[in-house]
Design a protein that fits this description.
Elements lengths: L2 H9 L4 H13 L2 H19 L9 H16 L8 H9 L5 H10 L3 E8 L6 E6 L8 E7 L3 E10 L5 E4 L7 H5 L3 H7 L1 H18 L3 H16 L12 H18 L1 H6 L1 E2 L26
Antiparallel strand pairs: 1-2, 1-4, 2-3, 3-6, 4-5
Helix pairs in contact: 1-2, 2-3, 5-6, 9-10, 10-11
Length: 292
């Protein structure tokens, strides 16, 4: 069967409107992304047509689905969601300092209690992690930035040993007031939050990404998590609430993310940012380098 015959067979079971949508999506996506899209598209179709009578996933199946999401965006086949993070998510009890450290170490990073960046001066910014990270201050090339202080960060290095860091997802104070249980979903969005941190810190200087592009990328990744079949093993999870949490997160970033965006903007070639809109920036050359 030709590729066109295969696509036509895949899409023939849908109504005319959905069938046309299916064909368009299939023809514009690359083979790898086409294979990835079938699951989500069929999921939406089943919901719309009332045919979603499949059994709830087991804990193992849900973890596998989340792992596939996590690795697809971090581009490193050996980098699975830390077991500690999964325990935090399914428990729905927030995340402690000890758990943050475990998540960082299990991810191959180095934990720093604090990290400071200076203002960008003459094209250079000084990045100073706390001594518990084991790393000294480092000068990076920047295009702007007023400087900032970060706490409880997980650090990595690119192929030129330049630091990049994240502090996990941030939870706006208004979140739980607007949507009960919002903080649980933010923990579920952890990998999207990690890459959003990198996009804010380095996306503009390295790849020319705008704040709006970083925010929309976070939103699209969060929604992709929401359409994973996670109901059942995560007792507090509901797909519709998850999408609402993603929308609330995007709104918070749009309205409140300005200070974080303007704090630091330096050149770091970290793996993973290329997936934020499906493009392949030429600067991307290596996968994440674990710090051991």
């Amino acid at each position: 069967m030709t590729i066109f015959g295969s696509i036509r067979a895949r899409c023939s079971g849908f109504s005319r409107i959905l069938g046309v949508t299916c064909l368009v999506l299939a023809l514009v996506l690359t083979p790898a992304r086409r294979a990835h899209a079938w699951g989500s598209f069929n999921w939406f179709y089943n919901i719309l047509s009332g045919n979603d009578d499949s059994p709830l996933p087991t804990v193992t199946e849900a973890y596998t689905a989340y792992s596939a999401y996590y690795t697809s965006f971090l581009l490193n086949a050996t980098y699975l969601p830390p077991e500690t993070l999964w325990a935090v998510i399914t428990g729905g009890q927030g995340v402690s300092l000890a758990q943050r450290k475990s998540i960082c170490f299990e991810s191959g990073g180095k934990f720093a209690s604090t990290l400071q960046t200076s203002a960008c001066t003459n094209g250079h910014v000084i990045v100073t992690p706390s001594t518990d990270s084991g790393f000294a201050a480092q000068t990076q090339t920047c295009n702007r930035g007023v400087g900032d202080s970060y706490s409880q960060v997980c650090m990595f290095q690119d192929h030129l040993q330049r630091y990049y860091w994240n502090d996990g997802p941030s939870i706006p104070k208004i979140g739980n007031e607007a949507l009960p249980g919002y903080d649980n979903y933010i923990l579920l969005f952890w990998p999207a939050g990690v890459l959003h941190d990198y996009c804010y810190h380095h996306g503009e200087a390295t790849y020319g990404y705008s704040k709006a592009k970083c925010d929309e990328a976070f939103y699209s990744m969060a929604v992709e998590i929401c359409v994973k079949d996670l109901e059942g093993p995560i007792i507090w999870f509901h797909t519709s609430t998850c999408v609402q949490a993603a929308q609330l997160s995007r709104l918070a970033l749009q309205k409140l993310g300005g200070p974080s965006w303007y704090a630091t903007s330096s050149i770091v070639d970290f793996s993973g940012l290329q997936t934020m809109d499906g493009s392949q920036p030429e600067l991307i050359t290596t996968a994440i380098s674990p710090l051991r």
